[in-house]
Every structure is written in structure tokens, then in C-alpha cells.
Design a protein that fits this description.
single chain, about 400 residues, alpha/beta, Rossmann fold, 2 domains, eight-stranded mixed sheet, 14 strands, UDP-glycosyltransferase activity, UDP_glucos_trans, Glycosyltransferase, MGT family, EryCIII-like_C
Length: about 400
């Protein structure tokens, strides 16, 4: 049996798919340790997960959009996170002595720690931002990102330049998506697409399940953990879009307490957290920012989407949802309530959207999810299987 060290950014959409993979490894008899914030990881991973605690520190906000988002993501989050967490990750490596590191693509400290220890490591891609490499068409931006990684490498006391892009392990790249959603891309030779990695989560005992009216259709509205500071005006427009639909539609809006003050009771339920996977079988549509985790969770259940992308890989994901026919794309900043209502009703009323979402669901299921990812990680210990959707060279 193997010993695996998991390293992720403290972001819900990043940790959830990796947590499903770590649970699959544990179920197969392997030892798993996470290196990260105990306060963040424990509620997600559960009471039995082994965690090497690394204090969570505040980082600069990421409210920027467009090209400024790349700067804030790297200068304000990725690089400072690497500097703050590398010592703790290396202590975990020394104490746990893992066989393999499983590293979030943006947690470059995990890649540096693996290099220093001479250990094999896998890149796990919880977003499509790095997979699609949109900045390759902008050489100066791509070169700037490479300099950010080189600076993190040098700051860690590593000699020379990184031997390769720290976002892409030379051993294995696991992507939590599938070609049915992403279409043809220039994938690395060692990439494998396993679809969404889903696992049971702790039940939300406080969620008012009896609020859901079985005679009405249900919509989930969520813009992700990184975008709440941008979402208040969007949520107000969502509520106005939903207001005339109350006889037929109920909506669950995930938003901080007190930020959606005019939601009509009985028609719109505002919660700071929601049991997303438990809700999915009851949903008729999802209104989302287009984060890959939310998009794939919806499509894995055959639920169509209305996507209002903000930044990062979200415009890419929104475009792919629309291209597959599994939903519609709207403008986050500019969509008016009337237009949002029309797009939502189109997704709810036209069965073609749900049919397209179900086609993606079926392709995801065939890719194998968390179990396939676990088998590929096992293959780093010894010759493994070819489960999942391996991308040909």
C-alpha cells in the first residue's frame, strides 16, 4: 500500500474533487495525509482525515476581472500561498515520508517540495484555466507567469530554474473534466481526464428540506467562494428575475447572511451554505459563475445551467456549456433581470438543454471519476490501469 500527501489551495472548489480522490485511496487501503489549514480542511474532509496543520493566512482579495485577474491571482494569492505553506509541506514530507504527492495545480509549493525531496508527484487540475492555457496567445503574459513560478522556485532556495512548468507534473496530470465538455484541446501527453470526482459530504442537518415544494421547479444560485464580494448586485438582479416566477419556481441562493434582503419568503431561500450534491437530484437548473467544480457537479447530475462568468477559467467553462447545448451564457455584470428570467425559463422549459446535460453526464460517468483518479495515482507506485479518458499524444 502507498502513502500519499495531498496539497491544495484552501478553496472549496479545489478541495472537494481532491477530497473525493483521497477518500477513494483510503478505501483502497492506502494512507493519506493532507498538508493545509486544519480550520479550512476539517469541515470539508471530515473528522477522520489526517491533516498536517499549516496556519491559514490572509491573502490579497481577487475582485479584479480581465487581465488584472491574472496579476491578482499570482501576485496576491498563488505566490504568497506558496511562500507561506512550503515550510509546513516540507515538514509533512519529512514526517510522513510519502511515496507520492498529489498537488493542486495552483499549489506550486507542493511541486517544489516534491522536487526537493526527489519524490514523484501528480498535478490535479480542479479548474480549466491552466489546462486551456489562454495566455499562450499572449506571450508576454505567459512569460510573466513563468517568471512568477521561477521567483517562487528561487525564493524556496532551489538552484537554477524550474526544470519544467510547475503547474504540470512530468509524471501525471489528472483533470476533473471530460472532452464532452471541453472539446478537443492540446493536452499534455501524460494527461488523463476522469470527469468530476464526487464523494459523499457531511449532511447539512440545518438545511430546511421541508421548505422545498414538490409541486414547483427548483433552481440553485451560486457564484462560488471567491466571488462573494462581487455578487451582491448580481443576487439582487437574480431575485428580481425570479420574483414573477414564484408560483412555479423556488430558488436556493447561496450568499452571506444579510446580503439578499428583499428575497420573497417561500419563493427564494438564502443560505450561507447549501448541501449542493444532496440538492442536485432535486434541481431543474443551476445559475452559476461557471467555476469548473459547480459546472461539473451540475452536469454530472444532468442538470442544465445558466452561467454568468466573472474571471479566470469561468468564461471558458461558460462558453463550453453553451457549445454543448447544456445551458446558456449571460453577462455577470450587465444582464438585466428580464433577460436573466428569459434565459432561465428557456433552460427550464426546453427539454433540449436537459438532454444535452444528460449526454455530458453519461460521458462523465464513463470516465470514472474519483475511482479512476485513484487508480492512476496507484499507477505511480507500480504499473497501473488505463481507466479514465487518457488523452493520446
Amino acid at each position: 500500500m502507498g502513502r500519499y500527501l495531498f496539497v491544495s489551495l484552501p478553496l472549496t472548489g479545489h478541495v472537494h474533487p481532491m477530497a473525493a480522490v483521497s477518500a477513494a485511496l483510503v478505501a483502497r487501503g492506502h494512507e493519506v495525509l493532507w498538508a493545509g489549514s486544519e480550520s479550512f480542511l476539517r469541515p470539508v474532509l471530515g473528522p477522520d482525515a489526517a491533516i498536517a496543520p499549516i496556519p491559514l493566512r490572509a491573502h490579497r482579495g481577487q475582485a479584479d476581472r480581465g487581465m488584472a485577474a491574472a496579476r491578482s491571482r499570482w501576485e496576491g494569492y498563488v505566490v504568497p500561498h506558496a511562500k507561506a505553506t512550503l515550510p509546513g509541506i516540507e515538514r509533512a514530507v519529512a514526517a510522513f515520508r510519502p511515496d507520492v504527492l498529489a498537488v493542486d495545480q495552483h499549489a506550486v509549493a507542493g511541486a517544489i517540495a516534491a522536487h526537493r525531496a526527489g519524490l514523484p508527484w501528480a498535478s490535479l487540475a480542479p479548474t480549466t484555466m491552466e489546462l486551456t492555457r489562454p495566455y499562450r496567445a499572449l506571450p508576454k503574459v505567459e512569460a510573466w507567469i513563468q517568471r512568477q513560478m521561477a521567483a517562487a522556485w528561487t525564493a524556496a532556495g532551489m538552484a537554477g530554474a524550474p526544470p519544467h512548468d510547475l503547474r504540470f507534473s512530468p509524471h501525471l496530470l489528472i483533470a476533473f473534466t471530460g472532452s464532452a465538455l471541453n472539446g478537443p484541446l492540446d493536452w499534455p501527453d501524460n494527461a488523463v481526464l476522469v470527469g468530476p470526482a464526487l464523494a459523499r459530504r457531511a449532511p447539512d442537518t440545518a438545511f430546511p428540506w421541508d421548505w422545498l415544494d414538490p409541486g414547483r421547479r427548483h433552481v440553485l444560485v451560486t457564484v462560488g467562494t471567491l466571488s462573494m464580494d462581487l455578487a451582491q448586485d448580481f443576487h439582487a438582479r437574480v431575485v428580481e428575475a425570479l420574483r414573477p416566477l414564484g408560483r412555479d419556481v423556488q430558488a436556493i441562493v447561496v450568499a452571506p447572511d444579510g446580503t439578499v434582503p428583499d428575497a420573497p419568503q417561500g419563493d427564494v431561500l438564502v443560505r450561507s451554505r447549501a448541501p449542493v450534491l444532496d440538492l442536485m437530484p432535486r434541481l431543474d437548473a443551476v445559475v452559476s459563475h461557471g467555476g469548473l467544480n459547480t459546472v461539473c457537479e451540475a452536469l454530472a447530475h444532468g442538470v442544465p445551467l445558466v452561467v454568468a462568468p466573472i474571471k479566470g477559467d469561468q468564461p471558458i467553462n461558460a462558453a463550453r456549456v453553451a457549445a454543448t447545448g447544456a445551458g446558456r451564457r449571460v453577462r455577470f455584470a450587465g444582464v438585466r433581470p428580464e433577460q436573466l428570467r428569459a434565459d432561465l425559463l428557456a433552460v427550464l422549459d426546453d427539454p433540449a438543454y436537459r438532454a444535452a446535460a444528460r449526454r455530458v453526464r453519461d460521458s462523465f460517468a464513463a470516465a470514472g471519476g474519483a475511482a479512476a483518479a485513484a487508480r492512476h495515482l496507484e499507477g505511480m507506485l507500480e504499473a497501473g490501469s488505463t481507466d479514465g479518458e487518457r488523452i493520446p499524444a
